[in-house]
Amino acid sequence: MSVTTDRPATAPDGPQHAGDGGRRDLRLFLVGQVASVFGTTLTSAAVSLIAVARLGAGAREMSLIVVAGTLPALLFGPLCGVLLDRVRRPRRALITADLVAAAAVAACGLAAAVDVLTVAWLAGLTVVLNSVGIVVESLYFSHLHALGVDDPRTARGKLQSSEMLSRSIANTVGAPIAAALGAALLFLADVFTYLISACCLMLLKAPDTRAPREDTGRPGVLREFRDGVGVIRRHPLLSAFTAYLFLSALATSGITTQRAVFLLDTVGLPVALYTLPAVVATAVGAAGALYAPRLLARGVPPRTVLLWGLPAAAVSTAVLPLAGGGTPLVLLAMVLSTALPLLFGAAVNIALVGVINDEIGDQYFARITTLLGSVSTLAATLGALLGGSAGTALGVRSGIWVCVGIDLFAAVVLVLVARRPAPEEVRP
To answer: Which of 26, 104, 301, 421 has a CA that sits 20 to 30 A from residue 58's CA?
Structure first.
């Protein structure tokens, strides 16, 4: 099967019914997605506290919840990508995802209210929410094309930055709200965030359609999956990015595994200050998501943003193991090593969507993103083992340096390999 397919007469980045209606729809879409992200993050942030404080979960039970969260991407991600690329009414799928999430959260809320909530319930909720996340992440950019906004790239930046701020706020307030309200009220209140998202989607006036595909017969799921893999393999930038993503996620997970021990024990950061840099970092990352579309609007190619942003993010991580010399310097190192990768990473995410749209096409978006998500999840799982082993064998500072070295190596390889232009057979 040829990897080139006909694209719609109006490119996805072009306005289809721009104007007041498009702006209204965009505002509703943004409010709905922010509410959905807030709800998912709030629940995820509170699950650990509920498991430990209410259910007495230990390390074994917590590992069950964590592993449950990785299963959708590892087991079903690629298959979901094929099926989601077939969806012709993305809004209906997004509404269904919100309602499924609301039902799962409500079920846990009722279980908590009648005192039958268990770790297995929380693990099941984690599976459902992460499965819903795959659907949302694969479709919401595609659905954005149908809203006819004047500047889709700027709209993506606003959407992503708003989601990052929403996620940061939810992570910050999740545990206190869970402690104040209790599990039952937290879950039942969280149901409304998904219902708000579903209502906003229902109120959109734009047609709920994607561009029709060329009617050449429907190939099998396995054939479409192989086709998606083939697009990545034959596209120099995406194939190099996939290899980079695996190594970078491996390194990032290894660093995350060792960060708390390094900061609290090795360099003596006060516990009360441990979460402060994360708040600053999220705000900086949101700024990156807003600024990236401006770069693209000025004519900077998306692949240029990608090839500069990823090495910059990798270099930024090297600041963390340099931390030392007192609390102010440790805080500075922690903020820089957390905020700068988020800043560059947010810009890269916007640019990656641009590369997929400009050089491949929206018809492969779900397959590509779910494949990349599965690669990242697998690497993160292995990276946690790597970080624990390296930190134990070498000490946490040296263990972090090992992970930083892997990240830098991946960035260098990416730049060297991905400078070649995309061949014509993978261009739309």
So the answer is: 104
Sign of CA dihedral 109, 96, 380, 270: negative
Contact residues for 335 (Cβ-Cβ < 8 A; gap 6+): 277, 280, 281
CA distances from 395 to 214, 269, 375, 388, 402 (A): 57, 17, 28, 10, 11
User: How far apart, in Å, do the first and last CA atoms of the chain sit?
Assistant: 14
The answer to whether 317 touches 404, Cβ cutoff 8 Å, is yes
| Cβ within 8 Å of residue 101, ≥6 positions away | 36, 39, 40, 128, 129, 132, 194
Measured distance CA(254)–CA(393) in Å, rounded: 13
The number of angstroms, rounded, from the C-alpha of 82 to the middle of its chain's C-alpha atoms is 19
Q: Give per-residue pLDDT as tens, 369-418.
A: 778 888 888 888 888 778 878 888 888 888 889 999 999 998 888 888 77
DSSP character at residue 151: -
Most distant CA pair in the chain: distance in Å? 66
Residue with token string 């729809």 = 25
